[in-house]
User: Fold this.
Amino acid sequence: MSPNDILFRIKLLFCKDKELYAFCFRLLGFPPRHLSTYRLAFIHRSRSTGNGKGRYTNNERLEYLGDAILGAIVADILYKMFPRKHEGFLTNTRSKIVKRETLSKIAKEMGLDKVVHPIVTSHTHNSYIYGNALEALVGAVYLDQGYERCKTFVEQRIIAPHINIHNIARTEINFKSKLLEWGQKNHVPVNFELVDTSVDGSNNQMFRSMINLCGSPVSEATGYTKKESHQIASEKALQRITSDAVFRNYILTRSKALIIIR
Assistant:
């Protein structure tokens, strides 16, 4: 019996929420120190609970933290795994690993759908509930155990069993095509503009491009080719459209106004 198993059995004797404690131990591979942090990671905003001080608590703050920590860990892994690849490749591969569809699939495979019970049904934008909970879980592990233990958890419990990084790196996602399709579907003019060119420290030429939607600047990106800068800028634009409802509605409203004017 490992030291972790012994510690788990001892703590389980004094734990009030034995079911959650056992679930977390199986999920993490080590005994959680502060079970309340993990409990919070599984509370969707539709089931926010009062903290006794007039505030309602859910996993959104942990999701924010976990998103940043997960991105840093994946960036660390990719940087060491692909020492000869440039920034655009690393950014694109990281995006494919941490995108909501991937995280939601992994979360269900890990069994998070058994402990996260939102009031709303899992459709459209709510389909990322479990992926968001996985990010919140990463945030909880970071707070409870620190960065190195969290990195080990991500590597051994998330990436190794569920993600083939080399296969993902070879899979090309055409973000520019996706953005143009979204623009066509919603009658939003999408324009790509080359802002300037420069050279990096190794004298390689760099291209900086900007994307405008309905004449409004949305995102900028730099790449070693115009195509790469378009791809990265398109990914940023799609992320903003998806995550920022106020901005999305603003663009759609401008689009309708342009149609009326025409």
Q: What stands out?
A: The beta strands are 49-50, 56-57, 190-199, 205-213, 216-223. The radius of gyration is 21 Å. The longest strand covers residues 190-199.
